[in-house]
Structure formats: C-alpha cells, structure tokens
Model the fold of this input.
Amino acid sequence: MTIDNPVFFFKCLGDETRCRIMLLLAGEGELCVCDLTEALAEGQSKVSRHLAQLRHCGLLEDRRDGQWVYYRVAPSLPDWATVLFARLRTDYAQWLAADAARLQQSRQQAESACS
Done:
C-alpha cells in the first residue's frame, strides 16, 4: 500500500504521538528530534521510534546536517492529506497549544544559552 491509499494513511497516523508529530511538522516545516522531544514532552527513543514508523510509511522525509537529523512532511503527500493537516491544525489548535508552547519555550532557552 502507499500513502495515496486513505486506509494506509490513517493507519500510519493511528497513534496520538505520530499524529502530534505530523501536525507539528505541518506547522513548523522542519524539526530535529531534540525539538520534537521537547515539544511532545516524550523521551528520545519513543519519538525516534515514531519518526521511523512515519518515514517507513512515506509520510516524512529526513535530511542530515552534521550530527543532526531534520524531519519534514513528505512533499509527495497527496493534496487531500496536506489540506487535512492544515484543517486539523486550525480546528484543533487548542489541543496542539501545549506542544507549540513547549517548542517555543525550548527555542527561547536555547537562544538565551547561546547569547
């Protein structure tokens, strides 16, 4: 099966952590594992396991920059999937607010440490 198949697509998202990862990436564009662990308040091994599953499904792409690996929503997703993520980010903004706040706080702390 491929990501063009809605049943396969939704099975890949059938976990809250994977869904939250996809919605964060749909809004942020690209994040590394450390950003996602902070935003989700989850351990690195759990986040990495879910990222591997999403990559295996074809929903994510990654790129390496030195020791860091950055993840983004696969540009090959069908248009209906992109529209769905945008709609979910709007309709469930309150549900995602805590993740976004933790991500923002983590970024601010990192900037302070580098100043």
The CA atoms of residues 12 and 19 lie 9 Å apart. The longest helix spans residues 93-114.
